[in-house]
Amino acid sequence: MNKEILKQNLREIPDFPIPGILFYDVTTLFKSAECLQGMIDELYKMYKDKGVTKVVGIESRGFILGAALAARLGAGFVMARKPGKLPAEVMEETYAKEYGTDTIQIHKDAINEHDVVLLHDDLLATGGTMAATDRLVKKCGAKKIFINFVIELEKLNGRKAFDEDVEITTLLKL
Description:
By secondary structure, the protein is an alpha/beta fold. 30% of the residues lie in helices and 34% in strands. It has helices at 3-9, 27-31, 33-47, 61-73, 128-139; strands at residues 11-14, 22-25, 54-58, 76-80, 90-97, 100-107, 116-124, 144-152, 167-173. Strands 4-3-7-8-9 form a 5-stranded parallel beta sheet, with helices on both faces. The longest helix is centred in the first third of the chain and has 15 residues, at 33-47.
């Protein structure tokens, strides 16, 4: 995928959500048909031969490409959500993030020991949300876990939140 297309379609919002933060708004990547299709195509190429049986999308922007990619891969889609959003029995993990703490949940029966799982979200900053989701999926006994982000903010060193043997891919590093 042409990384310039991603850069051209990515909106930067200074001082959001607090002063001093440069927020990368990925919603503009999704509104461009060329950019959206390019991301789906690129992700499919990256994971089509990995045996993925479930894609886990992290609330809420991870749902967009996560669900599209799951459909393209012929895999199931699992939502990782904030507390109170999932109706059945859940597993949860609390974690630190850039602006405080939060909790992420998945349905207890969403993943099993036969699943090869791709975890997907829009942005790797400090890695807290994804690392918590990775721990949840490991508790489910997944056979293999891959991790993907659309964008990685390299200066925040988010990869340090994961074990060195975790395979992490991104479409764009900033």
